[in-house]
Write a structure and sequence with these properties.
Order of helices and strands: HHHHHHHHHHH
Shape: elongated
Radius of gyration: 19 Å
Largest sheet: none
Structural class: mainly alpha
Helix content: 55-70%
Number of strands: 0
């Protein structure tokens, strides 16, 4: 738990999150990577339903993980609603698909495939480590994106469904910090080998997400929101703008 907290603090210092916090860059440009997250968002839903969840198990840790996967099962639905509100519900061209499945986005696109390999036939404790590492990265990411969405809400006079005012209580998504989980964990004794395997798994998950965040940062700083997937067509703006200009 302490190691995951440490890696979460390091993760929060990545260049992407400094970029998201830079109010000299228009919010549209800071959120330009949103469509690139499509494979990751949909993949996380499948990871929860088909890999992390095991309804046949009577293991106490696994039962709590199952509860978590059901709670997170509608992540993809909220994400798609968020993209629609932002104006991304456009017909996609062949060039758009090349962006989502091209060399530029391979780290983000393949992330869930690697996570599935880690989780496949993993022990409940390993699944718990994986889920908590996922929550650590998600909390940092969502808090950073939420701040940008709040800026857009003020400009657009509109509430965004997923990351806007309706998305509150990020701490409620934690699964380790509940009394039920803490009681279960207090009863578990890990061997040195099991502890080392858990630490290595957490390290690997944070490395995967770090590579993906670097990829998103590169995408955001080398593309204009006027040209990538028609981000600048968001109807809230009644004038042509250069998304790389300061506000």
């Amino acid at each position: 738990m302490a190691f995951i907290a440490q890696k979460k603090d390091e993760f929060a210092k990545l260049p992407l999150f400094e970029f998201l916090a830079n109010k000299h860059i228009h919010p549209n440009q800071r959120l330009i990577f949103a469509p690139v997250l499509d494979p990751l968002a949909m993949g996380l839903s499948d990871l929860n339903k088909y890999v992390l969840r095991d309804s046949s198990s009577n293991n106490k840790v696994q039962e709590l993980i199952n509860k978590y996967t059901y709670k997170e099962n509608y992540y993809w639905y909220g994400y798609l609603q968020h993209l629609e509100t932002l104006g991304f519900n456009k017909l996609m061209s062949y060039g758009d698909f090349r962006l989502l499945w091209g060399e530029e986005t391979k780290k983000t696109r393949s992330l869930c495939s690697v996570l599935e390999r880690y989780a496949w036939k993993a022990s409940p404790i390993q699944k718990l480590v994986l889920a908590e590492a996922l929550e650590g990265t998600a909390t940092v990411f969502c808090e950073a994106a939420l701040a940008v969405i709040v800026e857009l809400e003020k400009i657009n006079k509109k509430e965004y469904i997923y990351l806007g005012g309706s998305y509150v209580g990020l701490e409620n998504h934690q699964i380790l910090n509940t009394p039920e989980m803490l009681q279960v964990l207090a009863e578990i004794e890990l061997s040195d080998a099991e502890r080392q395997a858990a630490l290595e798994l957490a390290q690997n998950v944070f490395e995967l997400f770090t590579e993906a965040m670097h990829e998103l940062f590169g995408h955001s700083t080398t593309n204009s929101c006027k040209t990538v997937l028609q981000v600048s067509s968001i109807s809230a703006f009644d004038r042509t703008l250069d998304c790389l200009d300061v506000c």
